[in-house]
């Protein structure tokens, strides 16, 4: 029997009317080196003992990693000098290597392109605001969901990222903030959103492990409140339901992009597997289980999904479940060059918002930080190929 490649084939997505779109070079690529963040507590202790290190050294390493964002042997001054290099090499292999860094918004937006161990490229974007600093991270190399308007969707899915690869994006950003490497002086990374490359629910185990390590207090995690973490999905219903059962109060963001199945089947192929009603039912159940308002992401595309009838239908469908359970974030599409999908006219955006507001729906036009550095997800990686 053929061996299934180790990749993010979406649960419930290989049969029926939806299949993950796979990249041309999708193949078994081997696994990234195992990192401290990938190990259980017992595995860390066993690894330490292989190196002749007692158990308490593992706690010291956790404090370096989660508390001080350090992986560099030179920083392990509380370690026996002879063991520093060996411990750093065994627990903290370099998983993400910076290729390029682009800066915008007067230095307050930093977009980084990373290379992984197998040459794959992913990206993350750090955005500093007056009262918070948000990091947008990737969870898969490419994306298998195949949304036709999205640059990442054109890449297809190459593979899932490991927990260590996901977490390293957070550690580096937290360290940049602590060291004052982002305009505005030293500060603290306060929010993390899984809205970079990939469908987080297609890599469920790794993202949940990452969420736990981002939110746990030091020395078990970075101490960023789960309430400040957002997990997005294009509507993978089994993933939404599993996440609701985890008991972690993260915010759920659903990329809806269309209020009817007819239109959404075209914009978001996953809709053929889980339709608008199924997705909204699951999102509302998530709200009931966690008491966290759900975000509805809606990329406004000129003449396609941005007309008054779309806003009215969206409001009706959301109000069907009651008041105050969602927050809609319409965002002007950042178009792929040469594509037929373009951004809405400002007057259509304003009218769309107005209809939602009049229907009692909370909605804010999401700001488009980083647009002048190709801030739409996936574009930077797409250009490097
Ligand atoms: S819009 Fe999101 S889910 Fe769709 S292809 Fe792009 S990254 Fe994947």
Automatic annotation (TrEMBL):
* Family annotation (InterPro entries): Aldolase_TIM, Elp3/MiaA/NifB-like_rSAM, Methyltransferase_A, RNA_MTrfase_RlmN, rRNA_lsu_MTrfase_RlmN/Cfr, rSAM, rSAM_sf
Cofactor(s) needed by this chain: [4Fe-4S] cluster
* Catalytic function, reaction form: adenosine(37) in tRNA + 2 reduced [2Fe-2S]-[ferredoxin] + 2 S-adenosyl-L-methionine = 2-methyladenosine(37) in tRNA + 5'-deoxyadenosine + L-methionine + 2 oxidized [2Fe-2S]-[ferredoxin] + S-adenosyl-L-homocysteine; adenosine(2503) in 23S rRNA + 2 reduced [2Fe-2S]-[ferredoxin] + 2 S-adenosyl-L-methionine = 2-methyladenosine(2503) in 23S rRNA + 5'-deoxyadenosine + L-methionine + 2 oxidized [2Fe-2S]-[ferredoxin] + S-adenosyl-L-homocysteine
Single GO biological process annotation from the record: rRNA base methylation
Keywords from the UniProt entry: 4Fe-4S, Cytoplasm, Disulfide bond, Iron, Iron-sulfur, Metal-binding, Methyltransferase, rRNA processing, S-adenosyl-L-methionine, Transferase, tRNA processing
Ranges in coiled-coil conformation: none
- In which compartments does the protein localize? Cytoplasm
Keyword Cell inner membrane appears in the UniProt entry: no
Q: Which residues form the active site?
A: 123 (proton acceptor), 377 (s-methylcysteine intermediate)
Q: Which residues form the Radical SAM core domain?
A: 129-372
**Where is S-adenosyl-L-methionine bound in this sequence?**
198-199, 232, 255-257, 334
> Which Pfam families does the UniProt entry name for this protein?
Radical_SAM
Where does this protein chiefly localize?
cytoplasm
Q: Which GO terms describe its cellular component?
A: cytoplasm
Give TM regions: none
Keyword Membrane, does the record have it? no
Q: Any idea which GO molecular function terms this record carries?
A: 4 iron, 4 sulfur cluster binding; metal ion binding; rRNA (adenine(2503)-C2-)-methyltransferase activity; rRNA binding; tRNA (adenine(37)-C2)-methyltransferase activity; tRNA binding
List its EC numbers.
2.1.1.192
According to the lineage, what is the superkingdom?
Bacteria
Q: What does this protein do?
A: Specifically methylates position 2 of adenine 2503 in 23S rRNA and position 2 of adenine 37 in tRNAs.
> Which PANTHER family does the annotation name?
23S RRNA METHYLTRANSFERASE (PTHR30544), RADICAL SAM CORE DOMAIN-CONTAINING PROTEIN (PTHR30544:SF5)
Extra remark beyond the main annotation: Reaction proceeds by a ping-pong mechanism involving intermediate methylation of a conserved cysteine residue.
Instruction: Give the protein's recorded name.
Output: Probable dual-specificity RNA methyltransferase RlmN
Gene that this polypeptide is encoded by: rlmN
